[in-house]
Design goal:
Elements (H helix, E strand, L loop, with lengths): L11 H12 L3 H13 L11 H10 L5 E4 L3 H11 L7 E4 H4 L6 H11 L7 E4 L2 H11 L2 E5 L14 E3 L2 H11 L5
Parallel strand pairs: 1-2, 3-4, 4-5
Helix pairs in contact: 1-2, 3-8, 6-7
GO molecular function, one term: hydrolase activity
Protein name: HAD family hydrolase
Keywords: Hydrolase, Magnesium
């Protein structure tokens, strides 16, 4: 399912159409799949241990952690609320709300403006080589790719660093000592 969903990057109606063809589903069943995919797994979300402390350490070091995410605002806002992150980040830009998605550099520029900064010394920490790292490189940002047990895809721009967890990624950013996005 993760592959069919493009690691969360494919449009949900396209994924549902592929599943409907594969499983010979009715239009009503296909519509229900879209609803389920868009809802995501909000009930299953659990905060990564150390994530809040890492965000707070980044802010204490002068960084402005900012979420840049593809998707629908209601889904992304639900995730942030469920994980308790809202008070630990400077803000969030959601692709559907601004009309541009990662890897387009414009979404990173929008985030920088909302954060009151620039991309000059910024960082992108993300788990998608296509959306996050390609977007970071195109925007002139340094980057940390979250491996999460995977091999880095060939043919993608290289990240500045690779980390196994968000906590490790923030540690790498803090050790480099520039400002963050």
């Amino acid at each position: 399912m993760v592959v069919a969903d493009g690691d969360g990057l494919r449009h949900k109606p396209e994924v549902a159409a592929d599943l409907a063809r594969l499983l010979d589903l009715t239009p009503a069943e296909q519509a229900e799949i879209i609803v389920v995919l868009r809802a995501g797994t909000l009930d299953e979300l659990q905060p990564t241990p150390g994530i809040i402390e890492s965000l707070d350490a980044a802010r204490a070091a002068g960084f402005e952690p900012f979420i840049v995410t593809n998707g629908r605002p209601s889904q992304q806002e639900g995730k942030i609320a469920k994980l308790g992150l809202a008070d630990h980040v400077a803000g969030m830009v959601v692709s559907e709300a601004v009309g541009v998605a990662k890897p387009d550099p414009e979404i990173f520029r929008i985030a920088a403006r909302q954060a009151g900064g620039s991309l000059d010394d910024g960082w992108m920490v993300g788990d998608s080589a296509e959306a996050d790292i390609r977007g970071a490189v195109a925007s002139g940002l340094r980057s940390v790719w979250l491996r999460r047990g995977r091999e880095y895809p060939t043919g993608m721009p290289d990240p500045t660093h690779v980390a196994d967890s968000f906590v490790e990624a923030v540690g790498l950013v803090l050790s480099d000592g520039a400002s963050a996005l």
